[in-house]
């Protein structure tokens, strides 16, 4: 088999390798068994690892997360799937009330090595509640790590890292990137290092920060700026959104003096605001222009015929960078 | 110090009126005028034809993902035929047949399925909630609406729909519990179509039936043959009477089958046997009613052909006007409408920014 994999295949590989490595790793969620998950991320796992490690659960997100907490408390390493991030709110009391704080509450006695995976974000012409980007809910919750891959390769290594993490991880999968492109993802890759930003393109003129499915659009905008404006943008990916690697971001902006933050999450009180605040703290006197935020709008994602009007595109990102450069 | 059965627990009834060959039990059948039965048949046939057209347009890429109703026409039409226009309908996402009976327009459903919010706009004179995607989350709403009917003495009742999978969600249990404690006029209609995407009914609950869940909340539950429209209508009428006259809830489990895909994004061949589907083909709710009506002289080839022609014309002309309407739906700035009673200051600013971008893009494309 070729090592060129989509994100779905890369995630499947990571699960497989982690389940091979450790019998305590198990998968549970709605339709993750015979169906292989509605996006096929868990495809074939039930055949290889059996029903005691790949569980089709009743349709109940609070149950899935709550039971996963119990499993993790008792030494298992569950990877729970929420079918869409839009349904994870059914489990939010478990996530905020227990997942995020069991270690803290028990003063270190009980820990939760558990991963909650969920597809999020727009761009696949889905029904209502299937397209939002609400990573801020998780990133805002003390005690949670929020991890968001941007391509097949880091999806594989980040998921491995999440599974091996001694702390709970909310693992948000940008579904627009599930099958959009392939990358070289061989077997046996080492886990990624969490909590680290990733400089994806070097440049001295402006820093562009993004994650998830917006990273590709940001890189596209950076190429346009290079071709049409002769501007070299530095592009930073945030595979771990929270905790934020403000150091890497700060160091870059201290070099470039300008920053654009791109998210598909809505503007107000969102991740872009937090990133902008950290830039202000880390690089205030180096800034040549206000930090520019290119985000989704402060409305629910319109039904799919208009979803592209909601999402930032390369043109909007390029224009924002030009405004920032001209400031 | 006895150890005995709790006498207070009512047993769960099962109800079937019409068999697979269209024979029926006169004693058990609901009292129904011929015209109403014809209207019910027509509504079921319309839902079936519309479903086929939606599927066909979806496969051509003209519509988005939707949840087909095929196989569940009796469960839906039989139930809503028991409520009045002034009553409330609280649907989930697969209730096309019920919505059509209630007067939803084919054109709106086309527009909604093509991905435009406009298609989900609810007319001012309707008491029907918009489709609800998060499973079971609509059920507590039904209880609240029912409470308001009781408090305001409107005499109206609420009918809420959901699936077998929904009975696993906390919202389902909380809604039924509130309904029992508040003693409100609500009818919970569970369409047990045997599947929740790929998960069979047996994996949702170890309980023998879904109807029996009502026992735990202190009100009646009944299991009906959901492909038997007369049984569904009978059970729904009894439940509506109980709601309207005694202000008490009922849980009706309609045993039916999802004949098609879960949604158009699903491939059931991965998880279920074609043989099972074939078995249920023999219990088709429309076929059964057709046989019954023919045996009673309420339907013949001529009437049926004429009906099919009319329905197809109606569907085609709705698709045509939907396309015309959609040509006018070019401005995405509608996404800023209706979020608040009055747009807030930041939202107004965002709308302006959005419109500037939109105009800039338009100019660039010209
Ligand atoms: C809270 C929630 N979780 C998951 C989903 C995804 N989902 C949509 S339909 C469905 C299965 C529903 O099964 P059932 O209640 O039996 O209704 P049916 O689809 O069979 O009509 C699932 C899991 C959802 N819409 N909402
Ligand atoms: Mg079902």
Shape of chain A: globular
CATH architecture of the largest domain in chain B: 3-Layer(aba) Sandwich
* Percentage of residues in DSSP E strands of chain B: 5-15%
Please report the number of helical segments of chain A: 12
Order of helices and strands of chain A: EHEHEHEHHEHEHEEEEHEEHEHEHH
Share in β-strands of chain A: 15-25%
What is the largest interface, and how many residues per chain? A-B, 40 and 46 residues
What strand order characterises the main sheet of chain B?
1-7-8-4-3-2
> What is the top-level CATH class of the largest domain in chain B?
Alpha Beta
Spell out which ligands are present: thiamine diphosphate, magnesium ion
What is the β-strand count of chain A? Answer: 14
How does this model look, in words?
The complex is a heterodimer of chains A (327) and B (366). Chain A has helices at residues 7-21, 45-49, 61-73, 92-99, 102-105, 135-139, 152-164, 214-229, 246-256, 271-283, 307-310, 314-326; strands spanning 4-5, 25-29, 54-56, 77-81, 115-120, 145-147, 169-174, 183-184, 198-201, 206-210, 233-237, 240-242, 259-266, 292-296. Chain A has 327 residues and is of the alpha/beta class. In chain A, the strands form three sheets. A seven-stranded mixed beta sheet of chain A has the order 3-2-4-5-7-6-12, sandwiched between helices. In chain A, helix 1 (7-21) packs parallel to helix 7. The N and C termini of chain A lie far apart (51 Å). The mean pLDDT of chain A is 98. Chain B is of the alpha/beta class and 366 residues long. Chain B folds into two domains: 13-330, 3-Layer(aba) Sandwich (Rossmann fold), CATH 3.40.50; 332-366. In chain B, helix 1 (34-59) runs antiparallel to helix 10 (285-295) and helix 5 (139-151) runs parallel beside helix 6. The radius of gyration of chain B is 22 Å and the shape is globular. The relative contact order of chain B is 0.15. The A-B interface holds A 30-31, 33-36, 38, 56, 58-63, 86-87, 90, 125-130, 267-268, 297-300, 302-307, 309-310, 315-316, 319 and B 64-65, 93, 112, 114-117, 119-120, 133-135, 137, 165-166, 168-171, 196-199, 203-205, 263, 265-266, 270-271, 329, 332, 334-336, 339, 346-347, 350, 354, 357-358, 360-361. The structure holds thiamine diphosphate (TPP) and magnesium ion (MG). The site of magnesium ion (MG) has 6 residues of chain B, from strand 5.
């Amino acid at each position: 088999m070729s090592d060129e994999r989509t994100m779905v295949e890369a995630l499947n590989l990571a699960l497989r390798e982690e389940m091979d490595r450790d019998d305590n790793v198990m998968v549970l969620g709605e339709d993750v068994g015979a169906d292989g998950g509605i996006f096929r991320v868990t495809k074939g796992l039930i055949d290889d690892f059996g029903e005691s490690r790949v569980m089709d659960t009743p349709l109940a997100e609070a149950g899935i997360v709550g039971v996963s907490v119990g499993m993790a408390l008792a030494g298992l390493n569950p990877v729970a799937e929420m079918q869409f991030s839009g349904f994870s709110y059914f489990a939010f009391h478990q996530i905020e009330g227990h997942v995020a704080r069991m270690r803290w509450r028990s003063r270190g006695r009980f820990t939760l090595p558990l991963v909650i995976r969920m597809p999020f974000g727009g761009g696949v012409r889905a029904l209502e509640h299937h397209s939002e980007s609400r990573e801020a809910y998780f990133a805002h919750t003390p005690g949670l790590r929020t991890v968001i891959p941007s391509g097949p390769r880091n999806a594989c290594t980040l998921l491995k890292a999440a599974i091996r993490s001694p702390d709970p991880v909310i693992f948000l999968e940008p579904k627009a990137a599930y099958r959009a492109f392939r990358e070289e993802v061989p077997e046996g890759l080492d886990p990624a290092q969490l909590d680290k930003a990733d400089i994806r393109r070097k440049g001295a003129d402006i820093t562009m920060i993004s994650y998830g499915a917006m990273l590709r659009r940001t890189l596209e905008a950076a190429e346009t700026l290079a071709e049409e404006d002769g501007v070299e943008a530095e592009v930073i990916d945030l595979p771990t959104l929270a905790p934020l690697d403000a150091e890497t971001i700060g160091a870059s902006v201290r070099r470039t003096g300008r920053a654009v933050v791109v998210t598909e999450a809505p503007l107000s009180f969102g991740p872009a605001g937090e990133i902008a605040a950290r830039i202000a703290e880390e690089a205030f006197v180096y800034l040549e222009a206000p930090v520019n935020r290119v985000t989704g709008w402060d409305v629910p994602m319109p039904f799919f015929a208009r979803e592209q009007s909601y999402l930032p595109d390369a043109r909007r990102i390029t224009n924002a960078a030009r405004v920032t450069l001209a400031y | 110090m006895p150890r005995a059965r709790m006498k207070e627990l009512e047993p769960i009834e099962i109800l079937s009126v019409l068999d697979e060959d269209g024979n029926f039990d006169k004693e058990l059948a609901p009292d129904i005028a011929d015209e109403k039965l014809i209207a019910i048949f027509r509504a079921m046939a319309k839902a079936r034809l519309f479903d086929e057209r939606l599927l066909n347009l979806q496969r051509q890429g003209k519509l988005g993902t939707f949840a087909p109703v095929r196989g569940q026409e009796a469960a839906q039409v039989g139930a809503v035929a028991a409520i009045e226009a002034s009553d409330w309908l609280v649907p989930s996402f697969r209730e096309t047949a019920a919505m059509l009976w209630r007067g939803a327009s084919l054109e709106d459903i086309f527009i909604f399925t093509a991905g435009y919010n406009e298609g989900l706009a609810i007319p001012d004179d309707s008491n029907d909630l918009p489709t609800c995607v998060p499973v079971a989350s609509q059920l507590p709403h039904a209880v609240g609406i029912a409470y308001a009917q009781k408090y305001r003495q409107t005499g109206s009742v609420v009918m809420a729909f959901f699936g077998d999978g929904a009975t696993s969600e906390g919202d389902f249990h909380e809604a039924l519990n509130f309904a029992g404690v508040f003693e409100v006029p609500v009818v919970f209609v569970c369409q047990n179509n045997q599947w929740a995407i790929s998960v069979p009914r047996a994996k949702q609950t170890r309980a023998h039936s879904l109807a029996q869940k009502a026992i735990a909340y202190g009100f009646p539950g009944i299991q009906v043959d959901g492909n038997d429209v007369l049984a569904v209508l009978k059970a729904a009428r009894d439940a509506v009477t109980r709601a309207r006259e005694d202000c008490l809830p009922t849980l009706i489990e309609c045993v039916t089958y999802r004949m098609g895909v879960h949604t158009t994004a699903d491939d059931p061949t991965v998880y279920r046997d074609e043989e099972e589907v074939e078995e249920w083909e023999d219990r088709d709710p429309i076929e059964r009613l057709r046989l019954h009506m023919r045996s009673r002289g309420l339907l013949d080839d001529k009437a049926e052909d004429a009906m099919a022609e009319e329905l197809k014309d109606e569907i085609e002309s709705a698709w045509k006007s939907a396309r015309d309407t959609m040509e006018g739906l070019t401005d995405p700035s509608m996404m800023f409408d209706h979020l608040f009673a009055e747009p807030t200051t930041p939202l107004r600013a965002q709308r302006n920014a959005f419109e500037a971008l939109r105009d800039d893009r338009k100019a660039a494309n010209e």
